[in-house]
Amino acid sequence: MTTQARSTTSPMVIIGILFFVFGFVTWLNGPLILFVKLAFSLDTDSKAFLVTTAFFLAYFFLALPSSWILGKTGMKRGMAFGLIVMALGTFLFGTFATQRNYPISLMGLFIIASGLSLLQTAVNPYISILGPIESGAQRISIMGICNKIGGFLSPFVLSAFALKNIDKFEESVKLAADENTRESLLNEFASKIYLPYMIMAGILIVLAAWIMRSTLPEINASEVNESPADGELSKSRTSIFQFPYLLLGAFCIFVYVGVEVMAGDAIGIYGKGFGIPSDEAKYFTSFTVGAMFVGYVLGLVTVPKVISQQTALRISAILGILFTVIAFFTHGYTSVIFVAALGLANAMMWPAIFPLAISGLGRFTQTGSALLIMGIAGGAIIPKIFAAMKEQYNFQIVFALLMIPCYLYILFYSIKGYKISKW
């Protein structure tokens, strides 16, 4: 049975639910940075940004092992195992954050992302090759909509449970009569994180059981992601490192995730740089995710019917440069709005980069996908550089100097990088 003839509706519903989970868990990091800075009495933003460092570094270390695990378990059981690992990490974070143990809490985030790494390594190539690779961006756009709905909701859910009236609480902590009173207030604040994370752990376990009982079909990536012409290409090469367009694509994912996390997770700290209150800044991540949602909808109706994946990526990079420049030359809420608008620029990047980078890998598809997933570590490195440098330099200058080179590289990949040594 050809890929085109395969029924894709049921698998897409299942994978769409998983992408919702990805979005919900991943985009919790933005408001979580505000939470940990207060709950753990961290004296710098750089220490609070260890949230993104611990989370996104897991992808670098676990992506290749995930590829090996999937080779042993198959896609379906691998996805279920990934959800169980996420549940374990969620339980650890909820438990130890309540106890205000920052190192073990960060370990919990690392374990959550480890499970996500396994899931991402499975589902991204899965959805890319579930149909024709030329329309991979369209299918990933549908998944992106599911992802961003989850991402849009998560800051509101966390805020309702743990960040309600955070400005007043910060003031109460500052005005505490003595150290015991201060510690008591912080312990009470930290305990609010327990219930939402225990609920998430339970939901993840239920999802794992559902995936195992589902009708999700196995797809052999090595056989499906190979046209006759591509087959000659993959058969003539003996190493994944003989595909330059893949390696360039992995770095493209690195810088893309870096700018995505900057626009989504760092936007709250960026807004506070203008003196915007925490009670407002805690919702800014949802604005970025909302802009990404709009971008995914536009991609769904235009790719590949109106524009190609390459053109969509090119337009996205240009918009990223434009919005970053405007954010730099404006201030206050106007600047924050253009940082949030980067969500629109970023929306079609992952859906375009991933199919372009794995196209024609044949038997190297799973390993190539793992290399791309390793690129997600950009979300650990670039925001941490921003947090460290803003302690010494103007935060708007640092933001622009980090973002613009990243978008320029993405523009290069959209014009030339994806074609290098492909034929």
Q: Identify the CATH class.
A: Mainly Alpha
Note the beta-strand portion.
under 5%
CATH topology: Growth Hormone, Chain: A
What global shape is seen? globular
Distance between the termini: 28 Å
Largest sheet: none
What do the pLDDT scores average to? 91
Instruction: From the alpha carbons, calculate the radius of gyration and give it in angstroms.
Output: 21 Å
Please trace the helix and strand order, writing H or E for each element: HHHHHHHHHHHHHHHHHHHHHH
Domain count: the total is: 1
CATH superfamily: MFS general substrate transporter like domains
Oligomer state equals single chain
The helicity comes to over 70%
Task: Please tell me the CATH architecture by its name.
Answer: Up-down Bundle
Total beta-strand segments: 0
- In terms of structural class, how would the helical and strand content be classed? mainly alpha
* Low-pLDDT runs: 1-6
Q: How many DSSP H or I helices?
A: 22
What does the model show?
The longest helix has 28 residues, at 136-163. The chain is mainly α and 423 residues long. It has a single domain (9-419), classed as Growth Hormone, Chain: A (Up-down Bundle). Mean pLDDT is 91; it is low at 1-6. The protein is 78% helix and 0% strand.
